[in-house]
Design goal:
Helix content is about 75%, strand content about 0%. With about 150 residues, the chain is mainly alpha-helical. The chain contains seven helices and no strands. It has helices at about 5-20, 20-40, 50-70, 75-90, 100-115, 120-130, 140-150.
Length: about 150
């Protein structure tokens, strides 16, 4: 059984005992999503830790986008709830790269690819994406690559 899944289950039990509603709701949602993924497709299977981490990353991104949409619509209470759920999910994800570290990794990828113009963005992204997977949002990475290749 996946260690991530065991940890989430144990944390869910603890949050229920502590009566932490946000944490309990969020962890139940994560376990439900894991179960859905496990039974989708032609045959059921157990998700590996890497697949669970990708699922958590996807759910955290959904929370950020939903919070932004609610905030834009003036629904600050709903936005706050989404942000709180995102904070719970963030505890299970690797630390995000800071701007300097991301810029350095992009510079290295540009040098490795021999890229000289924005047309080479695809080659650079193929190199840098696996190196920063789960530690930087794809849009943030592509923006940095674009900025460095265009000389901005």
């Amino acid at each position: 059984m996946a260690a991530f899944k065991d940890r989430i289950r144990a944390d869910l039990t603890a949050s229920m005992k502590d009566r932490d509603e946000v944490r309990t709701r969020t962890l139940r949602m994560v376990l439900t999503e894991i179960s859905k993924e496990e039974v989708s497709g032609t045959s059921s299977r157990e998700l590996e830790d890497a697949e669970i981490q990708r699922l958590l990353t996807r759910e955290a991104k959904r929370r950020r986008e939903a919070a932004e949409a609610f905030r834009d619509a003036g629904r600050t209470d709903q936005a706050a709830a989404e942000i709180a759920e995102g904070a719970v999910l963030a505890e299970y994800l690797p630390a995000q790269l800071d701007d300097d570290e991301l810029a350095q990794r992009v510079r290295n990828a540009i040098a490795q690819a021999g890229a000289t113009s924005p047309r080479d963005m695809g080659a650079v992204m193929r190199i840098v994406q696996p190196a920063v997977a789960g530690r930087a949002d794809g849009k943030r990475v592509s923006d940095e690559v674009r900025n460095q290749l265009s000389g901005a």
